[in-house]
Design a protein that fits this description.
This protein has about 160 residues and is mainly beta. The strands form 2 sheets. Strands 1, 2, 3, 4, 5, 11 and 12 form a 7-stranded antiparallel sheet that branches. Strands 6-7-8-9-10 form a 5-stranded antiparallel sheet, with no helix packed on it. It has one domain: Rieske Iron-sulfur Protein (3-layer Sandwich). The chain is built from 2 helices and 12 strands. About 5% of the residues lie in helices and about 45% in strands. The structure holds FE2/S2 (inorganic) cluster. FE2/S2 (inorganic) cluster (FES) binds next to loops.
């Protein structure tokens, strides 16, 4: 990976010095690092949260898949070895790399004290790709046709609430 460009969250990286096709400029990396979290309406249609954590940039739908909580105010904590953003509304845990919803299941409710283990609900929050080119940060929207629950809060109705 060159010093001119680093691709975060994606398994692939590119050595070119131009932004990926169909990507959208978010801001200067130094400004995002300073702000830690930035939200932006991308392509006029999607509210995206870009956050900087432990040297990496991540992007996801801003509103929580559960009930539309603003993830920009969520803490980041590690659960079951995965970094998660914790929604400030009802404390749902969402992995910042995959958008998975995590929860703790009880092994056997009849056995006290209760023992729990972490489970995944699958991908619930749409994660987008972040690319840095020459200090500029771009987001490429994840346009997969697969429905993801956070899509519900990307309608005009919720964006204007
Ligand atoms: S709105 Fe996020 S946990 Fe309920």
């Amino acid at each position: 990976m060159s010093s001119e460009e680093e691709t975060f969250q994606a398994s692939s990286s590119s050595s070119s010095a131009s932004p990926p096709p169909a990507s959208h400029f978010i801001g200067k990396k130094e400004d995002i690092v300073k702000a830690v979290r930035v939200t932006k309406l991308v392509n006029g249609c999607r509210n995206v949260l870009v956050l900087y954590h432990q040297g990496q940039l991540h992007a996801m739908d801003t509103r929580c898949y559960h009930s539309g909580g603003s993830l920009q105010y969520g803490d980041i904590e590690e659960f079951n070895g995965k970094l998660c953003i914790v929604c400030p509304w009802h404390k749902y845990k969402i992995t910042i790399a995959e958008g998975e919803g995590l929860y703790q299941a009880v092994d056997n409710p009849m056995v006290k004290p209760l023992r729990t283990h972490w489970c995944s609900k699958g991908v619930k929050q749409r994660i987008h790709k972040v690319t840095e080119v020459n200090g500029d940060v771009y987001v490429t929207l994840n346009n997969s046709s697969e429905a993801i629950e956070s899509d519900v809060y990307q309608t005009e109705r919720y964006r204007t609430l």
